[in-house]
Amino acid sequence: DTAVSQTPKYLVTQMGNDKSIKCEQNLGHDTMYWYKQDSKKFLKIMFSYNNKELIINETVPNRFSPKSPDKAHLNLHINSLELGDSAVYFCASSQATGRQGFGEQETQYFGPGTRLLVL
Amino acid sequence: AQTVTQSQPEMSVQEAETVTLSCTYDTSESDYYLFWYKQPPSRQMILVIRQEAYKQQNATENRFSVNFQKAAKSFSLKISDSQLGDAAMYFCAYRSVQAGTALIFGKGTTLSVSS
Fold first, then answer.
1. pLDDT tier at A101 (50, 70, 90 boundaries)?
2. Looking at the complex, does the CB of residue A42 fall below 8 Å from at least one CB of chain B?
3. Is the minimum CB–CB distance between B33 and chain A shorter than 8 Å?
4. Which residue in A30, A39, A53, B83 has a CA-CA distance of 20 to 30 Å to B12?
5. Quick check: B62 pLDDT over 70?
6. Would you say B95 and A106 are in contact if contact means Cβ atoms under 8 Å apart?
7. Long-range contacts: A23-27, Cβ < 8 Å, 24+?
8. For B102, which of A42, A45, A103 is closest by C-beta distance?
9. What's the rounded Cα separation, in Å, for the pair B23 and B21?
10. Predicted pLDDT at B56
11. Bigger pLDDT: A104 or B29?
């Protein structure tokens, strides 16, 4: 019954490798997000998708590529991993009404996070 | 661009006491959402409370309430009857009403609760 799930929860890998993190939501939301939490716990948006369309693409190295096969899934693929990519990556989802008064639908719900450690 | 500031990196409270976490934000928008999220050591991000900017009434959720001052751009979180399980990092976050916009987070406040 997990609303937003991510796999894997932990990922330990060597520099230069390519890895993917998967995210799935069963809330019927139309918008999904990837956030990065760095070692100082600061959270920042990376990407967001609305109905499989990329709508937010922050200044992120192009080694990071999101893919949304359908509106319930948003995956994150990382090429040529670097030490600085070590972080916790969170997936989140919400509806996107674009109107006030829809706070419940617009609230973002988070997955459990994926801790990535690059050695 | 919008910014969110949490000026208290750490706070502490005794069990059963009340504590207030501060948050200020900067925006030129009139319609937006404000949130408090809790992140315990398990790292799960848990929604604590939500405030819609057009509502003058302060949001409450059981022991959690906010003091929303729109003109002052202030959004503090009050935790009453603190419990050991409240120990966590608390993040204040801003979101535009515009569809699909992301959360903008403050740097967080680590709350410790002692018995």
1. low
2. yes
3. yes
4. A39
5. yes
6. yes
7. A23/A73, A23/A74, A23/A75, A23/A76, A23/A91, A23/A111, A24/A72, A24/A73, A25/A72, A25/A73, A25/A91, A25/A93, A25/A109, A25/A111, A26/A2, A26/A72, A27/A3, A27/A93, A27/A109
8. A45
9. 7
10. 87
11. B29
Question: For A29-61, how does the pLDDT look when each residue is reduced to its tens digit (9 = 90+)?
Answer: 999 999 999 999 999 999 999 888 888 888 789
Which strand ranges, in their side-by-side order, compose the sheet holding A73-78?
A4-7, A19-25, A73-78, A64-70
The minimal CB distance from A100 to the residues B42, B97, B101 is found for B97
Candidates A94, A84, A40; CA nearest to A60 is: A84
Structure tokens that stand for B12 in this block: 């502490």
Whether chain A has a CB inside 8 Å of the CB on B71: the answer is: no
Question: Which residues lie closer than 8 Å to B64 by C-beta, 6 or more apart?
Answer: B36, B48, B49, B77, B78, B79, B80
